[in-house]
Amino acid sequence: MAGECHANKATDDQMAQKYALHVERFHQPGIRPPRMCGALNLTQAEASSYSWMMAPDLHRVGGAETAPRQEENKLSRNKATAAVVAKHLQSDAPRGDQEQQLAAEFKRLKQDYDLLQTEESCLKGGKKARAAKLSRSSESGKLK
User: Fold this and answer.
1) Is 41 inside a domain boundary?
2) Which residue in 37, 77, 107, 120 has a CA-CA distance of 20 to 30 Å to 138?
3) CA angle 56, 59, 60 (to 5 degrees)
4) How far apart are the first and last CA of the chain?
């Protein structure tokens, strides 16, 4: 059997090269191809049995290959979202300061307005009192 394996070295090397290209293209790079032997003869039942035994492993390998890709995609989406949020935060911070300044100015203007209303009511109240005094004095002057 060893002689047959050595005789098929060219075929083995060709299969190894195809396997390596497949792995590089579709799977994780850097995995060595398995040693292929032309003398390995399996019955259909044995091959089926081996494939069923390998199926869970292949499923785990597939999951192990896709999980990092999914996490990388999630990370890139989160980075993009973080950039947008940071941009909005930078534009909202000055607006918040400006809103506080406007609120303070409005409060000051409201106090000034209230003070002016108080002064106006005092002045109008004083004029009415003076007008009443004047009308009384003129009336009283007419009576005399």
Assistant:
1) no
2) 120
3) 90
4) 152
Over residues 101-113, the pLDDT tens digits come to: 999 999 999 999 9
Q: Residues 5-11: contacts with CB within 8 Å, 24+ apart?
A: 5/37, 5/38, 5/39, 7/38, 8/37, 8/38, 11/36, 11/38
Residue 24, in any domain of the structure: yes
Ranked by mean pLDDT, the top range of 23-27, 36-40, 56-60 is 56-60
How many CB atoms are closer than 10 A to CB 9? 10
Domain total in the chain: 1
- Whole-number pLDDT of residue 35: 57
pTM above 0.85, yes or no: no
> Which residue reads 């081996």 in tokens?
50
Domain membership flag for residue 6: yes
Asked if residue 51 is part of any domain, the answer here is: no
In angstroms, the CA 33 to CA 52 distance is 21
The residues near 39 (Cβ < 8 Å, ≥ 6 apart) are 1, 4, 5
Domain that holds residue 27: 1-34
Overall average pLDDT of the 34-61 stretch: 70
